[in-house]
Input
Amino acid sequence: MAIRVHSISPSWELSQLLDIFPLTIRQALVRLRNLEDIIEVVLDLGRPPEARFEHDFIYLTDVPIGHEDIAHVCSRVSPFGADNRAGIEQTLHRISAIRNRTGKIVGLTCRVGRAVYGTIDILLDVLRSGSSMCLLGKPGVGKTTMLRECARVLSEERKRVVIVDSSNEIAGDSDIPHPGIGMARRMQVADPALQHAVMIEAVENHMPEVIVIDEIGTEAEAAAARTIAERGVTLIGTAHGQTLQNLLMNPTLSDLVGGVSAVTLSDEEARRRGTRKTVLERKAPPTFDVVIEIHDRDRLAIHKNVADVIDALLRGYQPQPEVRQRQPSGEVTVVQEADTESMPRLSEAYDHHDRDGEERERPLSIFPYGISRNKIERAITNLRVNAAMARNWDDADVVLTLKTLERKEQPKLKQIASDNVPIYSIKTNTTTQIQAALRDVFNLGSIDNEEIALREAEEAVYQVMLNNNAIELSPQTSYIRRMQHQLAERYRLQSRSTGLEPNRRVRIYKTTET
Output
């Protein structure tokens, strides 16, 4: 049986927001031709008031905002909570305050809240599957709007839905929830720091089938989300981050997708995988079964099996999610299918290895003479070539050594050369140099300096994350150094340039250095 939603008129809700502003600002807003598209109104002390739209903004008056203007608005909204947010009764609008050092309000961001129906037709099949979902996206892209619509649709399908509303943004600033959540129940949070406790309380006291949470942002909330999922309750929430990779590299929230730990493999297992002995692996099942990246209101990227995607990411694969687009006609089309071949399940990969190992081409055996075995294994993984380490030189197809050792005419190298085993020499014992040699061995062609520098930075990022030791990269131009800094920043690591030109180079480290 369908449940009809009696929605409050959008024009009435907008008029409620207009009524909180001083007369001159309200009149300027009413005169706007595109008032229906407004996103927020910004009032900063000593500056003209702004009306902001998705890609633009305009000044409403030439008169700077004074203390009396801010006091006028504050007197017409609910009291500000610990998170410096307030609202307007029976609406979804959010008023956020900026305070000075003494606690006085000197700025207001008045965000327009709208209950937009029909926004989740693009993922309705995923919602009805019963999978736990996490929505990601930049601020203002519509995560909360979509979350509210998910709660409404599931409640209309006779699901027991409970919303944990930390800032009253999902169900409005009133003891009576906004009609936009349908028949879902809403639990308010007195203090945002206590959201994790309210999440657990919702499960223990109210027997929900679905819990909806906005803005999971702390370690305690991530742990509470895992507890909820382990109790068999479907979880639908949003988290800080724009992509699945952002979530994975966030040490506070990575537990939502299983978390990451360093694992040391046995020699046999490392050979079977064709990887180095120390690898990064997912340490637990993900809290969320599905992660959805919201690119814009009409375009989504859906990672349907988060466990497999995380495993593939940690093995160096690039995830290819299913991408859906809502056309102007309202039709939803799949513009990119999920590429399962680039994200093999580990168990399937091992089964395939066991079944077809004899039929596959024998890997090239490499014997390291004076070179780190771990770095060769890392280079093999990076290049994805069919190679393995040889225990003895007489079992090897190729020998890798240093030029300094070759010049000294080591007796063992002479013996290897006399047996016609190819010897490849490199200048320094680095992964970048080893990769360049392997490219020659496998005829992969040369790579430019920029790619070599970025791969060196990627190797350094991995080592810093694993061992917490600072690493200095090779000297580079200012352009390449800037890209190396950006790479470190992407993984939430620190970096700085050191030295003088032409030997100026980047140093990557985990904590701030003095």
User: Anything to note?
Assistant: The first helix runs from residue 10 to 18. Confidence is low (pLDDT under 50) at residues 1-8, 343-360. The CA atoms of residues 104 and 507 lie 42 Å apart.
